UniProtKB/TrEMBL annotation:
GO molecular function: metalloaminopeptidase activity; zinc ion binding
Gene3D superfamilies named in the record: 3.30.2010.30, Neutral Protease Domain 2, tricorn interacting facor f3 domain
Superkingdom in the source lineage: Eukaryota
UniProt keyword terms in alphabetical order: Aminopeptidase, Hydrolase, Protease
Organism in which the protein naturally occurs: Bucorvus abyssinicus
Protein name: AMPO Aminopeptidase
GO cellular component terms given for this protein: nucleolus
Ranges of residues in domain Peptidase M1 membrane alanine aminopeptidase: 439-657
Gene that specifies this protein: Aopep
Length: 715
């Protein structure tokens, strides 16, 4: 746990003990306050027992308990006394029920000053004295560890899901026959019944998740906050099976928290957004960060009227006015994904619309459908992921070349977005569909984020952040970046890396596919022009990679830094992301570039048509799942067994591309070949002209004479 981590290292700790308890769903209920720069509210987490500990019968309990005596015992010297009196209460707000929800809200136990009393409760803390008296209570209580940083945790409590109106339908289930009538066991079994509802009952599942999230508490839990974690304990509970499977955490963020950025947009109005922090979302809400913790979520977010809340969500939310000056926004997700992919942006964004463009979108959609729908017959097969309402199994979704989309921007950039960005989105979406098939997500929002955004773009489920820097560069810069982020819907989101050190699985694929998508989006370009563009970009990428390799630590140049240990976890499920907090790593592109060149090399070896067919097969087989490098490479090489004779194996790819620093040997000679491209020569000639005339002007210190004028070409 935390004491085993070396604070001098730059590795990012993933503390959550997901092998013992695994979060399946989050319900967030939050208020955004721009005056204090704080997001405050509650989050309810619904769990299932983890893979390392599943009690199959009452007789198993004693034997299975042995592993927790050492690995999960409470550390008396570390678990400090949690102040449980004079606790700040969650401010009272008008109740917002998205589903006309049933169930009672939490009983108000606050005094006139807004402080929670901490009277004895049925399942809770009897007194703050008992909270500190760890040694007298024994040392084998189970600890639930969550990833948490830069948060003020106010209270943690078990949720009485059995108090929800209508929940009897789950307690009467045949599966509950013979289950212990103890309230704790009944509550956990109810959570299990809801968590395991089949995919075709997803609306009912969301309804009961929301109902349960508003149920009253039935006892506070002991908690300790550390630098990277939140540790929870219920006195006398010694196994994950018996630990509460629905808990509510009251908390608030800190203005300096590293998961969100409080700033102003280009029009000078306040806003806050998740900017892709190296620590992910643990400073936005307590969660389980390891990728294996695939979960769904619902979120209700309240803020001042006039602000727009955009979020990772399947629905295009519209505001509900709760009271004068306050609006609420509700989003949900039914596809399980890591908590790190959750994204939110709150600001005075304006939606950019262009009514006359509707007909063009429809034309492009129909064209892509007719040319592509025959490529994806294997979608009729059964998916390999956990059950959820999958678009790959939806006949209408499989024929949707352009998913619904919206564009948001600060007021001052609306005209520029209308001129450039709006017309590109359907072209790029259609090109992506013609390449990979079914869009994994049902809709897309595109937001031009504030100028302090440190990247050109960032993709999250259902939403893409774009930098304002892509707008003045014409359709090429904006289009290629848009294609890159759209590619992440398949590689990075629908298919994620099981080990976050293998970033190339996301960024290498997106960089490779941006060229493919953009070529198909530019339907008017001839094959030679497309090839020229791609060779020019390859040369520029090769030079960037060469420069980066010469000016960075060798260890940071390795795409699989954990090598044969990649994907391994501790018994509890905790791990570290190697170099995850190293400052210079944020600015490096080696995972983009080496990954791109590896995929380009494979495509050239196999042939682009066969290679893209293999990509589509990989997408269908692994969407909704986490993968390692060998999952892709093994599947690819199985389709081309003749390449093994030429020495192309998974082991050789590891050795030449993924497990070593520097420029891969197969790539060393390629830098010279791209210089022969006609477009590269044209660009080089134009750059030479600019340099020469700039030097001439600087030497003379005067305006150039008429006879000195140089004719520049538009390349």
């Amino acid at each position: 746990m935390e004491t085993q981590l070396d604070p001098m290292k730059d590795d990012l700790p993933l503390m959550a003990n997901t092998s013992y308890m695994l979060v399946k769903h989050y319900v967030l209920d939050l208020d955004v306050d721009f005056k204090s720069k704080v997001i405050e509210g509650s989050i309810v987490l619904f769990f299932e027992t983890g893979s390392q500990y599943r009690k199959t019968s009452s007789t198993d309990k004693e034997g299975c308990q042995l592993q927790f005596d050492e690995t999960c015992k409470v550390r008396a010297s570390e678990l400090c006394c949690i102040p449980v009196t004079n606790m700040s209460a969650h401010s009272a707000k008008t109740e917002y029920n998205d589903f006309d929800l049933c169930g009672k809200g939490e009983e108000d136990t606050s005094d006139k000053n807004g402080n929670h009393s901490n009277e004895d409760q049925t399942c809770g803390i009897s007194s703050s004295k008992d909270c500190c008296n760890i040694e007298n209570q024994g040392n084998t209580d189970f600890l639930l560890v969550l990833d948490c940083c830069d948060l003020s945790v106010l209270k943690v409590e078990e949720v009485d899901v059995a108090a929800v109106a209508g929940i009897e339908k789950f307690t009467r289930s045949a599966k509950l026959t013979g289950v212990s009538k103890e309230p704790e066991n009944l509550r956990n079994q109810i959570v299990r019944e809801i968590v395991t509802l089949p995919a075709d009952r997803w609306k009912e599942q969301l309804y009961y998740f929301m109902c349960c999230s508003q149920a009253p508490g039935c006892g506070q839990l002991l908690f300790t906050t550390g630098t990277w974690s939140l540790e929870l304990r219920k006195a006398g509970v010694q196994t994950p099976t018996d630990f509460p499977h629905a808990i509510r955490i009251w908390y608030k963020t800190k203005p300096e928290g590293r998961s969100v950025t409080w700033t102003t947009d280009q029009s000078g109005r306040p806003c806050v957004y998740t900017m892709g922090s190296p620590i992910n979302n643990r400073a936005l809400f307590p969660c389980q960060e390891p990728p294996v913790a695939l979960s769904t979520w619902q979120a209700s977010v309240r803020t001042a009227a006039g602000f727009v809340v955009l979020m990772s969500g399947e629905n295009a939310a519209e505001p509900d006015q709760l009271q004068e000056g306050i609006s609420s926004w509700y989003y949900y997700v039914t596809m399980p994904m890591p908590a790190s992919t959750f994204t939110i942006a709150v600001g005075c964004w304006q939606e950019v619309k262009q009514q006359a463009f509707t007909d063009v979108v429809q034309t492009n959609t129909e064209f892509s459908l007719s040319s592509s729908q025959t490529d994806f017959r294997w979608h009729e097969e059964i998916c390999g992921h956990v059950e959820y309402p999958c678009r790959f199994q939806n006949p209408a979704a499989r024929l949707q070349a352009v998913i619904p989309y919206r564009v948001f921007a600060p007021w001052c950039l609306m005209e520029r977005c209308e001129e450039c960005l709006l017309q590109l989105i359907p072209q790029c979406l259609s090109a992506a569909y013609s390449t990979l098939g079914t869009h994994p997500f049902s809709r897309l929002d595109v937001l031009i984020v504030p100028s302090n955004f440190s990247s050109l773009g960032m993709a999250s489920p259902h939403i893409i952040f774009l930098s304002q820097s892509v707008l003045p560069g014409g359709s090429h810069l904006c289009g290629t970046r848009l294609c890159h982020e759209i590619a992440h819907a398949w590689f990075g989101l629908a298919i994620g890396a099981r080990d976050w050190t293998e970033e190339w699985i996301s960024e290498g694929f997106a960089t490779f596919l941006e060229d493919i998508f953009w070529a198909r989006a530019q339907q008017q370009l001839a094959h030679d022009e497309v090839k020229g563009q791609q060779e020019l970009k390859a040369l520029l990428r090769w030079r960037r990679l060469r420069d980066e390799v010469q000016n960075s630590e060798e260890e940071l140049q390795i795409l699989r830094p954990k090598r044969e240990s990649t994907g391994e976890l501790s018994e509890s499920g905790a791990s570290v992301v190697k170099h995850g907090l190293k400052a210079e790593k944020i600015f490096m592109q080696v995972h983009y570039l080496k990954g791109y060149f590896l995929l380009q090399s494979l495509a050239r070896t196999i042939g682009e048509a066969s290679y893209l067919a293999s990509l589509r097969k990989f997408v269908h087989k692994f969407h909704g799942q986490l993968v390692l490098s060998q999952d892709f490479l093994c599947m690819l090489l199985e389709d081309i067994p003749e390449q093994k004779e030429s020495g192309l194996t998974v082991e050789s790819i590891f050795q030449n591309w993924l497990d070593t620093s520097g420029i891969p040997k197969p790539l060393l000679e390629e830098g010279e070949t791209w210089k022969e491209c006609q477009l590269v020569q044209q660009v080089s000639d134009e750059v030479t002209k600019w340099i020469q005339i700039n030097q001439r002007i600087r030497k003379s210190g005067k305006k150039k004479r008429k006879q000195d004028e140089v004719v520049f070409q538009k390349v």
